[in-house]
Structures are given as structure tokens and as C-alpha cells.
Backbone:
């Protein structure tokens, strides 16, 4: 190895590994600054130094393409949060997608949960007109979750300068007959009709676990909880399903308030915003069943979903 090669390697180490400036390297090596620049170029030409750039945007775009092709989606948005709160990054991406997707006169169906609340927080107020925000499923619980649901819907309403249509019912009735009686009331029937006619649905999914937000709303008996936890992998719009996407608790489903899975699939744009390793199974089920047209998630979840299915 000749003197120039050795100096080029020394210069590259100081520049790329020790973060020294070219002026500092010139002082250490006893050469001029232009000579240091030439040595660094030479080090790259000879293969002594390689510069590798990892662009998260390229990786995310590749994952988006894979998801879109695998599940026949209209769009997939994958975020790459290097630090901070992954849910916040996913919520922001969901908000950005919606604000491009929504047009004047659209009706937007919205569910509930921490994820949708995070989407709502990142929406920017705009000048849309004649937009309507419709609550897709019952959400009044015997806990503080009802207030969170209201805040989510209010943020969507304010951002889109919209009218808001609330479904003033619990997520689940104690009795199926009671649900039918209430659903047949003219005002409630009118709201349910609006739910079936929305242009865009924004929803998330939940996992069947002891600390499930849906199970904690106070409308499930101990027997209900055992039934759900023994059969379901999670829920889509409050409907508990198995790994094949089949309703696995029919008696409970008859008491569940809001859009059905069949009704959901008839909505033109169905945006799933979800992340987390614990949700991979239920996310995969929703995607495989064709319930989703647009998907927003993070890199780790996207990779896990592609491997799982």
C-alpha cells in the first residue's frame, strides 16, 4: 500500500468515523485542505470508503406497494417513526390521507378508540362545505370512554367544517329485543339509514383481550366476556370475529349497535388506521376479508402483516 492510499484511508477514518472537519484533518495529516478533499474522493473511488444512505421514504414506499398489491388496496400508507410515539405518527398519516381524500359534500363515518382520537388530533381545519360526520357505531358506555368518543367526533366535525350525526346508543345492548325496539324508533332509524350511506368510513380494529376497551365499557356480562375471549381474535366495528373473519359470538352480535360488516364492505372508501404487534392477526383478517380499501400503519406492523399472511 503506497503513501497516498494510506493517507486516503486515514483521512476517511477521521472524516466519516470521527466527524472531523476537512480543516482539522488537514492539520492532523500536515496537508492542505484541498488535498484532504482529493484524498476523500480517492478513498471512495478506490473502495476504501463507502457512503450508505438509508431513506425511510423508499422503504415505506416499497412496503406500501407490497400491501397494495397483496390485498388489492386503493392505497397503503406506511410511516417510519424513528423515535417518539409511533401511534402519533400513524395518526398524523391517517389525518393527511383523509384531508386529501375528502371532498365537498362527502359523508364520513367515524368509529372510536385511541387510534381514531389520535387521527382527530392531527386533522387541520379546512374550508370544506356540506360535509357530514356520522358516528358509525354505538359508543355510549358505562365508563369514561363515551367522552373520548365525543371528542373524536367533535375534532372531525371541526376540521371538516361539518354537521355531526350522533348515534346516541351504547355499543352493545343487554337484550337483543331492546335493541330492535330502539332501532325501530323513527329518529334512530333515520340515523341508521345515514350510517349505511356514508362515502368514507374511518375505523380501527381491537384485540380480544382482558383489557379490551370495548369489553370495559360495561355492557358485557362475565359470561359474555368469557365467550368473546374464548372464541374471538378481535373486533371490527364492535363485531367480534375469528381468524377467518366470521362472526364468532352471534348472540352478542345481535345486540351490537352500528354498521354491520356487510354494510361496511358496501362503503366506497374504507380506511383502516391501526398499528401494533398485538393487532397483526385482526388487521390481517380485515385485509384478507376485503373490508379495507385504504390502510395506514407503521413499518413494523406492515412487515409483520406481510409475513403473517
Residues:
Amino acid at each position: 500500500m503506497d503513501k497516498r492510499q494510506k493517507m486516503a484511508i486515514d483521512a476517511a477514518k477521521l472524516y466519516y468515523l470521527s466527524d472531523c472537519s476537512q480543516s482539522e484533518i488537514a492539520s492532523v495529516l500536515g496537508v492542505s485542505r484541498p488535498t484532504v478533499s482529493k484524498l476523500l474522493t480517492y478513498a471512495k473511488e478506490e473502495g476504501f470508503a463507502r457512503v450508505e444512505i438509508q431513506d425511510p421514504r423508499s422503504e415505506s414506499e416499497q412496503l406500501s406497494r407490497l400491501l397494495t398489491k397483496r390485498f388489492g388496496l386503493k392505497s397503503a400508507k406506511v410511516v417510519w417513526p424513528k423515535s417518539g410515539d409511533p401511534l402519533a405518527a400513524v395518526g398524523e398519516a391517517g389525518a393527511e390521507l383523509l384531508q386529501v381524500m375528502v371532498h365537498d359534500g362527502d359523508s364520513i363515518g367515524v368509529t372510536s378508540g385511541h387510534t381514531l382520537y389520535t387521527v382527530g388530533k392531527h386533522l387541520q381545519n379546512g374550508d370544506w362545505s356540506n360535509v357530514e360526520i356520522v358516528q358509525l357505531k354505538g359508543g355510549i358506555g358505562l365508563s369514561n370512554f363515551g367522552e373520548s368518543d365525543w371528542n373524536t367526533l367533535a375534532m372531525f366535525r371541526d376540521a371538516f367544517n361539518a354537521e355531526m350525526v350522533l348515534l346516541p346508543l351504547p355499543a352493545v345492548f343487554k337484550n337483543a329485543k331492546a335493541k330492535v325496539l330502539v332501532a325501530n324508533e323513527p329518529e334512530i332509524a333515520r340515523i341508521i339509514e345515514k350510517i349505511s350511506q356514508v362515502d368514507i368510513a374511518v375505523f380501527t380494529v381491537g384485540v380480544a383481550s382482558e383489557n379490551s376497551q370495548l369489553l370495559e365499557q360495561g355492557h358485557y356480562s362475565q359470561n359474555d366476556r368469557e365467550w368473546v375471549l374464548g372464541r374471538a381474535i378481535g373486533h371490527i366495528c364492535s363485531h367480534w370475529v375469528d381468524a377467518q373473519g366470521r362472526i364468532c359470538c352471534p348472540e352478542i352480535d345481535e345486540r351490537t349497535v352500528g354498521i354491520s360488516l356487510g354494510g361496511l364492505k358496501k362503503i366506497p372508501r374504507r380506511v383502516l388506521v391501526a398499528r401494533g404487534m398485538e393487532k397483526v392477526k385482526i388487521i390481517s383478517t380485515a385485509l384478507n376479508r376485503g373490508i379495507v380499501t385504504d390502510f395506514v400503519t407503521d413499518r413494523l406492523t406492515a412487515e409483520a402483516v406481510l409475513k403473517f399472511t
Observations:
- The first helix runs from residue 3 to 17.
